[in-house]
Amino acid sequence: MYILKQDIENLMSYIHQYDRIIIHRHLNPDPDAIGSQLGLKEMIQYNFPHKEVYAVGNTAETLQWMGEMDRIHQNDYSGSLVIITDTANRPRIDDDRYIHGDCLIKIDHHPLVDEYGDLSLVYPQASSTCELITQMIQQNPSMFRMNHAAASLLYAGIVGDTGRFMFDNTTESTFESASFLMQYEVDLFKIHTTFNTLSFPMLKFQSYLLDQLNVSEPGIAWMKITQEVLQKFDITEEETNAFVNLPSVLAEVYAWVMLVEQKDGTWRMRIRSKGPVINQLAAKYDGGGHPKASGANAANEDVINQFIEDLKEQVQYYLNTFERSE
Ligand code: AMP
Ligand 1 atom closest to Cα of 294? Predict the structure, then answer.
């Protein structure tokens, strides 16, 4: 239980104060972003049925099973409370209209890089924003009554950000939160099966990715996906998310990157690690994130090549400093 009592009291005092609450999360959402956004919406609505609560942002097709976004007008922001979940920095907030609210609250588990909001609840020790929200309720049960729908959304977010309790952001608190949510009859099998399911084109695409996977000394891997390939396999960029961890099974690979060409010819870099810290490197390439899971951008192939050299250096540093001294 790591959340300051004062933070929970302040959050509840704002929620009590406002009759219209609009919840945002980050661009290119993952299950933790959607789970924290829609889980919070569900709980506020369940506990305060007279309040209007909206969740906004672009629809993520692969995550539609978690729920739909609401359509609202800019006028709706006047006199409203805006809560942003799972979003470290302001440029990453999906839907710029958040600035038109009366009051802004940030709830996040990413390392603090951009302090924003009238109230900021940032706890990087939480595996996920969904764990953080669950911990608040466990710590202060009078805050919200939980229900099945909210518990299922929060559980899905925890599963997403911990790679099904496999990544080393999984702690005793993560299991405590999962166990707490399970009391609300979360359909664990259904959620885990959904995470595991691929379409036939996606399975074919996986085989392509394995075929063209690049592995190099001192322990890095990269996968390049052009717009042409996406079209050939009839895959959306969002659907490539399912394969970002493919290289993790290789013992000799410590860090890797999935490079996805954007429609404007630039590249999105999705970086992952089993040890080396990669978020500072991501920041150098117009990105950021967690020490072992980050995102960044590259304007062209020259920048990608430079990034790959930097990643090699980072892995070499890690090997010199940690692995070989163990
Ligand atoms: P992704 O590769 O998109 O799954 O992102 C991995 C992690 O890095 C997530 O926690 C993202 O929120 C974060 N992230 C991705 N792209 C950026 C970016 N451009 N700036 C800051 N954080 C990012």
Answer: 8
Coil, helix or strand at residue 55? strand
Question: Percent of the chain scored above 70 by pLDDT?
Answer: 99
Distance of CA 98 to the CA centre of its chain: 19
Dist. CA 325 → ligand 1 center (Å): 31
| Residue reference for tokens 């829609």 | 38
pTM for this structure? 0.93
Question: What pLDDT shows up at residue 60?
Answer: 87
Protein residue with its CA nearest to atom 17 in ligand 1: 295
At residue 323, the pLDDT reads: 73
Maximum CA pair distance of the chain? 60
Instruction: Provide φ and ψ at 312, rounded to 5°.
Output: -60, -45
* Angle in degrees, 0-180, between the axes of helices 5-17 and 129-139, rounded to the nearest 10: 90
Cα gap 82→59, rounded to integer Å:
19
Atom of ligand 1 nearest to the CA of 271: 2
Dihedral of alpha carbons 304, 307, 309, 314, sign:
negative
Which residues, listed in sequence order, are joined to residue 215 by a DSSP beta bridge?
Answer: 221
Position 325 pLDDT exceeds 60: no
